[in-house]
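Deviation from plan, reported transparently: glycinamide ribonucleotide complex.
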Amino acid sequence: MNMLRLGVLVSGRGSNLQAIMNEIEAGTVKAEIAVVISNKQGVPALERAERHGLTTVFLDPKSVADTPNPRQAYDQKLLETLQHHQVQLVVLAGYMKIVTSVLIDSYESRIMNIHPALLPSFPGLDAQRQALNHGVKVSGCTVHFVTEGMDTGPIILQRAVPVEEGDTADTLSERILKEEHGLLPRAIQLFAEGRLTVEGRVVHIRDV
Ligand code: GAR
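Because the crystal trials were delayed, the predicted structure below was used instead.
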């Protein structure tokens, strides 16, 4: 059987990447990581991937800084790298760069992102702190398909995490992160099983 080929995009710590690698190894996610791509050099996520024997690529944003449309030019390079590795599903696992239509048009409904809040609440940066500052009693995490617009695409899975009295951004982030590590691999496996269909904003999950 041909395994679903993943391209995982990272920018930092890589704990979500680690969760995916662990579940692939355990056989609970039936996919293979074809390439891990980072927009930051020397980050722990790349080290984790290399320790695991995966192919890694650092794509330097500076290499396109002098072009007329640097964001699009960057995503063109990204797209070429993904296609070169025959990636079928792109997973943004702590990838802190907005993707443009260059990538989205070629991978429509085939790019997933994990976000540390219950979207559509608290999109963008520092979502856990935004939730705390707003005073919500429940936050959580969301896996969604990526469309143009910040964290606005069709929602695949969500998990709620209660906010506790005395929580700081760090303690809340830590509890949300634990849930992220279950949620993202689960969404990938649902995709691998061909169980996700998108109708407008709504993602339907077919029973088996
Ligand atoms: C995760 O909490 C992820 O949800 C968040 O960055 C962290 C990356 O951690 N992503 C975003 O905020 C995207 N808007 P990791 O590098 O350890 O996986």
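Residues 12-16, 45, 93-94, 114-116, 127, 177, 180 surround glycinamide ribonucleotide (CB under 6 Å). We consider this an acceptable substitute for the interim report.
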